[in-house]
Write a structure and sequence with these properties.
The complex is a heterodimer. Chain A is of the alpha/beta class. Chain A contains 11 helices and 10 strands. Chain A has a 6-stranded mixed sheet with strand order 6-7-8-3-9-10, with helices on both faces. In chain A, strands 2-1-4-5 form a 4-stranded antiparallel sheet, with helices on one face. In chain A, helix 3 packs parallel to helix 6, helix 5 packs antiparallel against helix 6 and helix 6 packs parallel to helix 7. Chain B has a domain of 248 residues. In chain B, 68% of the residues lie in helices and 1% in strands. Chain B has a two-stranded antiparallel sheet. In chain B, strand 1 and strand 2 form a beta hairpin. Classes of the chains: A alpha/beta, B mainly alpha. At the A-B interface, helix 2, helix 3, helix 4, helix 5 and helix 7 of A face helix 1, helix 11, helix 12 and helix 13 of B.
Chain lengths: 288, 388
């Protein structure tokens, strides 16, 4: 399933000196960054650090002003993503999950998954496809993984927020991409849902390379082995959760400069958010 | 590790317990299927009811063709979410192709000539009035009804394919798409009314010959109704097959969330072009059949209000369903006939109120309403319930 052993490290994605300039504002500023095949990498950073722009640049939604983004698919030649359209990049094997749930609300859960299955995307092929027979085993496995089996024939529009997010993760599984980009998977979830999502991502990481963006530190600690911190479009720090949290530059960005850690939008006041802010200073070894 | 991940580990190796299976579909679609079949059978009832009234037969034959037109609009508006306000363009192209044929045939029969294209073939009246000396070479071959029917489908198909490909490639959507469809139909409208020698101008082509296919002349509109309704049902079944396939789901997906479709790797523009092309071809066929029942063709089809009324049929019946547009066309058009026979001037007002009422209170049209009532009935009434 597109997964190679980690014995030979291979960089599946290399971001080289990439700048994205929104008429004067540099959302990414000569960013250098890479991920190895089979990794589960978490990217954190305060608001405006360029996390989402990084995903936009990789998926072709915005074109870099300068620099190269090289994707190395399994057993195929590497390619510079700047030369590809959005849909082509998706076909190369890069799947993306947006921050808000992005499902087809008037289709059933099962049809959402079926459309995501990895079959040729051409019109003619789609016309001839035996839709109801295709990929039954994989669909069953995915429904089981995301726990939506009993709701397979419900319309996706009436699922709860958390269920929609899981459905979308399931759609990514069905797409079977080599590299999965996941934008804030637990935003707006209850702690319980969040923990389940973490388990789901860890399970997905067995077969895929994952790049997850988040800033919920509890969640990051649950899933991350390696964390990259972005700040103002540049790479600030990289390492294990502990190394990153002990890094004075990171503390400066999260606590000094901005005073509070940028939490999910739910954090109402600085006072309410500050306990989380302190958590970052404390050694968290026993958590991880 | 939680339960969840251990389950997945088992999924990787051959599972020891029974493998998870896709649950089977619930039986709730059965009721809809039965209702649809009943509806299709009902389409053949009106001529029996009105069989002694040629006037009504003609009206119903026209309505059947208009229902096919509504079906074509539903494919792109109801299913794919692209509101076209100029679909009369394709209807009109089909209509004119067949109108040329029947007009040339009538002129030839009046002079007792054979129905073949020739340099000295009989001139239709409007060409003679405009002092054309012979039938233009691009019109003459259309005297063959089979060629004309092929043209009535292929020309709209090609125009729709080109127009669709360009607009969708440029990612034009929403209200801009609607406006461009109107601009295009306006252009064709002006082209038609300003070229009287070739098109009949404002009047169009009147007193056409009756349709004759394979030696059978449709002398009565009663027969024609069954022919048109038969084609309508065939198209309906074809569309039903298509819309229940992967392409149909994908088109609905495009309506819901086009960006997500592209993120999945589908080229949404090509799928939209495909359905727009198909819709254009069906609209052309509808126009061709309409002309056979109407015995005249004119620039009325290319006027914008005709295309907008067609959208109203779809909205009233229920967009995004296949029964809806047909039901809407039958109800609205037959209602129009009945009401304007009694009170000739109130119809347009009723139509306007109807549209506003449907948009406000029945977003899913009549079919949506019936479905809702049915669902509530299933839930509330003490039937023996199927086990979910």
């Amino acid at each position: 399933m597109g997964f190679q052993s980690k014995i030979v490290p291979e960089e599946i994605l290399q971001v080289k000196e990439v700048t994205v300039d929104f008429s004067g504002f540099k959302a990414l500023n000569e960013l250098n960054f890479s991920i190895e095949r089979g990794e589960l990498r978490v990217v954190i950073g305060p608001n405006g650090a360029g996390k989402t722009t990084l995903l936009d640049a990789v998926t072709g939604k915005v074109k870099p002003t300068a620099g190269r983004i090289v994707f190395q698919p399994n057993e195929r030649p590497a390619c510079d993503l700047a030369h590809y359209q959005e849909a082509e990049i998706a076909r190369l094997g890069i799947g993306r999950k947006f921050q808000t749930p992005n499902v087809f609300k008037s289709l059933t859960v099962l049809d959402n998954l079926r459309l995501s299955l990895k079959y040729p995307r051409g019109v003619l092929h789609t016309l001839m496809a035996p839709f109801l027979q295709d990929g039954k085993d994989l669909l069953a496995e995915i429904l089981d993984t995301i726990g939506l089996g009993p709701k397979a024939y419900r319309e996706a529009g009436i699922l709860s927020h958390g269920e929609k997010q899981w459905l979308e993760l399931g759609m990514l599984l069905a797409q079977d991409p080599e590299l999965l980009l996941i934008d804030e998977p637990v935003a707006g979830m209850t702690p319980r849902e969040s923990e389940r999502t973490g388990d789901l991502l860890l399970a997905m990481a067995r077969k895929h390379t994952l790049l997850v963006i988040d800033h919920d530190m509890t969640f990051v600690r649950q899933i991350a082995s390696k964390v990259t911190v972005l700040h103002e479009g540049r790479l600030l720090s990289q390492g294990t959760v502990r190394e990153v949290q002990d890094n004075p530059k990171v503390m400066e960005v999260y606590l000094g400069h901005h005073k509070i850690e940028k939490k999910t939008p739910a954090a109402p006041t600085p006072a309410a958010a500050s306990p989380k802010g302190h958590a970052i200073q404390k050694p968290i070894g026993h958590h991880a | 590790m939680s339960e969840l991940t251990t389950e997945i580990q088992e999924g990787l190796t051959p599972p020891l317990v029974a493998a998870p299976a896709v649950p089977t579909a619930p039986a709730r679609t059965l009721g809809g299927r039965v209702a649809t079949c009943l509806f299709l059978v009902c389409l053949f009832v009106p001529p029996f009811y009105y069989d002694d009234d040629p006037y009504r037969s003609e009206q119903f034959a026209k309505i059947a063709a208009l229902a096919l037109f509504a079906l074509s609009i539903d494919l792109i508006w109801g299913y794919t979410g692209l509101l076209t306000l100029g679909h009369g363009l394709y209807f009109g192209l089909g209509a004119y192709a067949v109108a040329y044929s029947l007009k040339l045939q009538r002129a030839a029969l009046a002079e007792g000539r054979e129905l073949i294209a020739a340099p000295d073939m009989a001139l239709p009246d409007f060409m003679a009035f405009s002092r054309l000396t012979q039938v233009p070479a691009w019109i003459a071959p259309l005297i063959n009804i089979y060629l004309a029917l092929a043209v009535a489908i292929l020309v709209p198909l090609i125009v729709a394919a080109i127009f669709g490909f360009v607009t969708f490639r440029l990612r034009i959507k929403g209200v801009y798409f609607s406006l461009i469809t109107q601009a295009l139909i306006l252009a064709l409208y002006l082209l038609v009314i300003r070229n009287l020698p070739y098109t009949g101008g404002d009047v169009g082509m009147v007193s056409l010959r009756r349709l004759e296919l394979f030696g059978f002349e449709f002398k009565q509109d009663y027969d024609l109704y069954f022919f048109i309704a038969g084609i309508l049902v065939v198209c309906f079944l074809g569309c039903a097959l298509l819309m229940n396939s992967k392409v149909g789901r994908l088109l609905t997906a495009i309506r819901d969330n086009e960006n997500r479709v592209m993120a999945l790797g589908y080229n949404a523009a090509l799928y939209k072009t495909f359905i727009f092309t198909l819709s254009g071809a069906i609209a052309g066929l509808a126009g061709a059949l309409y002309v056979c029942a109407n015995h005249s063709a004119g620039p009325k089809f290319l006027q914008i209000d005709f295309s907008i009324i067609a959208v109203i049929w779809v909205a009233v019946g229920g967009r995004g369903t296949l029964v809806g547009p047909i039901l809407g066309a039958y109800l609205v058009e037959f209602g129009k006939i009945l009401i304007s026979e009694e009170w000739p001037f109130v119809w347009t007002m009723i139509l306007g109120v109807l549209f506003v009422a449907v948009v406000l209170f029945l977003p899913d049209g009549i079919v949506g309403l019936v479905r809702k009532i049915f669902q509530v009935a299933v839930r509330r009434l003490p039937w023996p319930r199927p086990v979910a």
